[in-house]
Design goal:
Largest interface: A-B, 54 and 54 residues
CATH topology of the largest domain in chain A: Rossmann fold
Largest sheet of chain A: 6 strands, parallel
CATH architecture of the largest domain in chain A: 3-Layer(aba) Sandwich
Strand order of the largest sheet of chain A: 2-1-3-4-5-11
CATH class of the largest domain in chain A: Alpha Beta
Order of helices and strands of chain A: HHHHEHEHEHEEHEHEHEHEHEHEE
Oligomer: homodimer
CATH superfamily of the largest domain in chain A: Response regulator
Strand content of chain A: 15-25%
DNA sequence: CTGAAAGCGCTTACAG
DNA sequence: CTGAAAGCGCTTACAG
């Protein structure tokens, strides 16, 4: 092959292919991209030469020229937590199916997050952005606008982006009604607060808790509503506090599965039986919940991710799309709930 | 701002900044990149103008010009499985710390994998690639060579790439020795096979199983060595088979935590107590293992990911690096193992 | 159907 | 310290 003298050999270029195929750069470009208006013979010839040199068009150069990157960014606070990981996997899957690359940006701390919106490291690098379960403040939205790309929110939204998410109030209702229907009247809630996170403006799951009790005229006791940090350890702490009460609840509604896991651990260590001594229900249905026989309200992180990207793709394609998409939730009754025995 | 008439406004360019700052394109470029040989005053001026227009240099164009992409690819079979997710999170963290973007490519099925190596979708799009827990065949390595970028393997290797991984045989020994030291003599192994995966050439964990028994002169019984699909369901199946034996084992060594989870579920359902009726140990120490009180051999997916990227970065920087890095494993004794009672 | 040329938005020797 | 110019590897009106 022709070797460029001025730079280290970066491999063969379209110009090389064109020369060898005996056509112009323009024609070679069209042949490679499958643009119409090139004879079949020419196309075949060019591609054959390209093939022989295992040449592929440089997406970088191509993108520069046509003004798109072929990449979608995903902004998230977590990668390894099951819910996020599942959403991310599905997002990548859909994008890959459309020939788009997925570039992940994880802002682990408030400082990371501040810095992300300050520096906007995805700037000029993506064609669109999916914001995954991350509340966006008005100021952050302003920054994001500088990106000048399509943005969509998956699993919760605050700023006014198209979004797909569950109805948290409804999910909470499903969980609470299950406990109430079983006959529980002394029900506690373990609510999660992510210490690393500015909070969501409305805590719909907590709202569902009080609403459900209100509806039956059951007074809401402060002691029965505990707020703990996110994660299994938070659930542990929450259940410990509830067990310390003079009169513990007969059932607990945990904000999410992770909390329930920690709560279950405490109960096991305390020698208490589930569901005989304590019922527990939560929201999510992570893979481990089946293993742990946890009653929970199922939502699909993957589906939310998938629909969010599909919305984004529609926006990019200039096609019509839904501004708000609500994905279903439903109760999965398992062994952690039963009528109260006390 | 100057508006380009010929194309849709893609925003302000370096040329605009240069013009407004009253310097040449070249100088503006140097000022923005912080290249030396520009007066402080000029640099300040240029950056001030850029700031005012919230302009950032186009990574795409810059990369095209200097020949790098600022992106690292991660090739994996899974995103949502805890081990992979943890590694990925750490990889992204390190790369972000170096100003590099992470682009994920997940090959879920053998067909995906075939297609990945055939089409090489990361071609010309990344500066390096980390292959995460994915065995690479000689033919696949040949294809990867076409990428012409640095490649490193995290958590297991087959092709001859620099790698970082645990010593599986040693991890297996740690698990087995724990059971043996507790006095178990009738020990089963539940081994995982990923149906979607070409297998790793040597099954070191299984090897550790037979070796440990051999060392004590304990015969290896075929019935006690079960092979099941990966995941909790596989563990369930494996434990069911073991419980069906005329003489079940007193302890089980599970290839990985996920299998152990499924096995624990069977035991719970069968009303068998852990560890009194059955001890169980595995390898990984995923987050849920603490919650489940599972004795396991800890390895760190995150550390392996981190060290792998660091190796890759050293390669890219032309610095010296280790070809093989072994990360430590150690037994975490918890409540799922005890001396045999039968 | 095909080509010459301008353009995408930068970087970097090469000369001052 | 600064600028004019070539180059990175493509794409795409504009003319045939």
């Amino acid at each position: 092959m022709t070797t460029k003298p001025e730079r280290p050999d970066r491999g063969v270029t379209l110009a090389d292919i064109a020369r060898e195929a005996g056509v112009s750069l323009a024609t070679a470009s069209r042949a490679m991209s499958g643009a119409r208006g090139v004879s079949a013979a020419t196309t075949r010839k060019v591609r054959e030469v390209a093939e022989r040199h295992s040449y592929v068009v440089s997406p970088e150069a191509s993108g520069l020229s046509r003004g798109s990157t072929g990449r979608i960014g995903v902004l998230t606070r977590h990668i390894a937590r099951p819910f996020y990981a599942e959403a991310l996997e599905e997002i990548e899957s859909v994008l890959a199916g459309h020939g788009l690359d997925t570039v992940v940006h994880c802002v682990r701390t408030p400082e990371d997050q501040r810095s992300f919106f300050e520096r906007l490291p995805v700037r000029r690098k993506v064609d669109g952005l999916v914001v995954l379960a991350l509340p966006v403040t008005p100021h952050e939205k302003e920054r994001l606008d500088l990106l000048d790309v399509a943005v969509v929110a998956a699993s919760g939204q605050t700023a006014d982006y198209p979004y797909v998410s569950i109805d948290d109030a409804e999910a909470g209702r499903q969980a609470m009604d299950h406990l109430l229907m079983l006959g529980h009247r002394r029900i506690a809630m373990i609510n999660a607060i992510d210490p690393n996170a500015s909070e969501w403006p409305i805590e719909l799951r907590a709202l569902a808790y009080t609403r459900a009790l209100d509806r039956l005229g059951i007074p809401v006791e402060d002691d029965l509503f505990v707020r703990v940090p996110w994660g299994a350890d938070g659930g542990t702490e929450g259940m410990e506090r509830l067990l310390s009460l003079r009169e513990p609840p007969t059932a607990v509604f945990a904000h999410s599965d992770d909390l329930a896991y920690g709560a279950l651990r405490v109960l096991r260590r305390a020698g208490l039986r589930v569901p005989e001594d304590m019922s527990i229900v939560s929201i999510n249905d992570l893979p481990m919940s089946e293993v742990l026989d946890l009653t929970t309200v199922r939502q699909s992180a993957g589906l939310q991710g998938r629909l969010a990207v599909e919305t984004l793709l529609a926006m990019l394609a200039g096609e019509p799309y839904e501004h708000a998409t609500i994905t279903p939730t439903r109760l999965i009754p398992r062994g952690s709930t039963a009528p109260p025995t006390r």
